[in-house]
Each structure stands twice: as structure tokens, then as C-alpha cells.
Design brief:
Largest sheet: 5 strands, parallel
Shape: elongated
Helix content: 55-70%
CATH architecture of the largest domain: 3-Layer(aba) Sandwich
Strand order of the largest sheet: 2-1-3-4-5
Number of domains: 2
Amino acid sequence: MSRSHRLLAERVLADPEGVAFMTVSDLAAVVGVNESTVVRFAAGLGLKGYPGLIRLCRGKLSEEAQLLRRFTNVEALAGGGGAGAGDGGGEGIGGPLELAAAFDQANVARTLARVDPAAWSAAVATLAGAPRVHVLGLRKVHAVAFLLSYLLGMVRDGVHMLSPASGTLVEDLRRVQPGDCFVGISIHRYIRETVEGFRWAKAAGATTVALTDNAASPLVPDADHVFYVDTAGVAVLRSVTGFVALAQALGNAVAAERGDEARATLGIEEDLLDRFGVYE
């Protein structure tokens, strides 16, 4: 293979879930080649153009146990010479640490570059001004939901993280009122409770913000504002580094939006931390 085709092949092997929902422009941009190269690559594999490559990737999702397949890819790519991270520069790299760094740098850069400024401003205003903010994210994105809830809770009151594991999802959803903000976080394979809870919140009159991986996500139809996160990587689970960067950026933006109110809230928190001797 040529260098460009090898980088495309490595990207498909490393993240067939992500490629399955990319346009030809998306894949070309993330690997750093032109669109005609992507089309020639697919044809060279004996596929019917780029749509054939997409069908191949989507077929893999339905045929194989994803955790086991991803573990196999970890062994093959980390042990066998590396995968192109999609920045268009350099040769393939090897080793788990180098692979993680390369993929996650690209994930963060592409995630933040894809943010629509108008959607960002509207979402930040809602997160800052809604009476209550509810955040729901389960399993592999649970940590992201916790981080976003924690950051928002530092600069405003009325932030609630839903915890279906405790068996109280119905009670949690009952608290969602018209005018609230509801954040749903999910990536393929999408958790049913997150999708259903997000849909219910939209019907209840909340402004909905989705943090997800692609336009085919079941969160998208019920979202007022959507932010797409790149999750490529050589790992047993898909990377959430882009989600972490986006959550931190949202937290910072909401703090700036609330201005003096955020300053006052942080001041009270500092007093409490000092009074209770939280830190050594």
C-alpha cells in the first residue's frame, strides 16, 4: 500500500465504529488525505466505492462482539507497528502510550474544531441560566457525566446528575420541568436508559443538549443542541478524551457566562473547603 492508503487502512482497523458513520469528507480530513484518495482506497479493496466501505464497517458492528474485537485490535496494532492517528503527519507509530497520545490529540482537536459557534453560545446560555440542569451519562461515559455535573455545580446551584443504578431513574426524571436543561451523553453502543430519558426530557419541555459521537446517534432527533465528539483510539473501550475536553470547556464557559454569580458561588465553596479542612 501507499502511505496514504496504509493510514486509511489503519484508521479503519482502529475505529470501524467511527468510520461507519463518517462521510467521505470526514474520513479524508481526519486522516489528512484528499477525498479522491479515500475513494480509490475503497475501490482498491474491491468495494463499490465509499458506500461499500461504510457498509463493510457497519456490518462489522452487527457481526462481532465489539469488546473482544477491540481487544484483538489492541494486540495487533499496539504490538505490530502502530496506527496513523489522523493528523496527516509522520509515519505509523507503535506502543500503547504513543498510540494513545496520537489518537487523543487528534480526538480533542477535531472535537473542538467541529463545535458550531451558534450552538455553543445557545447551549452555554441555557446551562448558565436554566432553573435546573440534569445530566445523564452511563457506563463508559459515566465519568464524563460526573465531571460535567461537578464543574457546573461549582459555579451554579440546581445541577443534578441522574443515577439510574440506584433504581431511581423514574424519580429523577419526574423532577425535570419545562425550561430546565437536560444533558444526555452517549456513544455507540447507545444505552437504552440514556436514550429514553433524553427523549422523555424533551417531551417534558426541557432544553436538550446532546454530547454524542455521530449524526446517526439516537439522541440527535430529540436534541436542541448537539456536539459531536471524536472517540477513535486503540483501546478496549472507545476514547472519551474528547468528551473530557468538551466538558471542561463547557464548565469554563458557563463560569464566565455567570460572572459575578459564579465568583460568589466559588467564594462560598472555598470558605467551606477551608472550614472542613478538606485538603492537606
